Amino acid sequence: MKLASPKETQKQAKEKIVAAAGEVFAERGFRDATVREITARAGVNVAAVNYYFRDKEELYHSVLREAKSKCADMIEPNAPGTAEKRFRDFVHRFVSHLLDPNRPDWHMRVITQEMINPTSGLAILVDELTGPVFRRLCELIDEIVGKRMPETELHLLAGSVLGQCLFHRRSRAMIERLAPELCADPDQVAKIADHIVRFSLAALGANVPASRAKTASRA
């Protein structure tokens, strides 16, 4: 049997600590989480946090980066096709990512915790995740509309699209009670994304010049 190298062992230890920390931070938030609870859940010595991450804050930043690292495929600035098609692909990737049953549940919850109770980690989310996603969505909307609009209006439109997507993730427990059919079948993920695309393009149609309105409605 091949023994793990020291580097592999260290990597596994760090991954175990990050996973345990992600769960604790998601449950309690950064301020109320303790290193002792994290290391107990990870099954390692308290000193391991200082050894691998220096302190709780650095560990928290590593947790946020792990959570956001799975979102990189949502942004494809050079994808082919019309703006409407790229908008549809963006929404489908985003919704599929949010509702992926194989994704650790703490990923989204720890990001939500940071948004509700911001810490020094907010800069990581804005610079490396929410900022790029938001700007890419604004670019797509601007291209679909095909005319210059006030930045505030563009930001409101992008926020509305993201809000629809996030509703189906953050309100999952409530949706299971109000409309259980939306959660029972994995195929519903694509249907949810399709609905958001149609609804959003219809709303954007009010801002689209007549020559482009038909293209948007057919996308």
Characterise the protein shown here:
It is elongated and about 60 Å long. Helix 3 packs across helix 4. The protein is mainly alpha-helical and 219 residues long. It has 2 domains: 60 residues, Homeodomain-like (Arc Repressor Mutant, subunit A, Orthogonal Bundle); 136 residues, Tetracycline Repressor, domain 2.
Q: Which structural class matches the secondary elements?
A: mainly alpha
Overall mean pLDDT score?
Answer: 86
Q: Name the shape in a single word.
A: elongated
Terminal CA distance reads 55 Å
Radius of gyration: 20 Å
Here the CATH topology of the largest domain equals Tetracycline Repressor, domain 2
Report low-confidence residues grouped into runs of 5 or more: 208-219
Q: Based on DSSP secondary structure assignment, what is the total number of beta strands?
A: 0
User: Do you know the CATH architecture of the largest domain?
Assistant: Orthogonal Bundle
CATH homology superfamily of the largest domain: Tetracycline Repressor, domain 2
Sketch the topology as an H/E string, one letter per element: HHHHHHHHHHHH
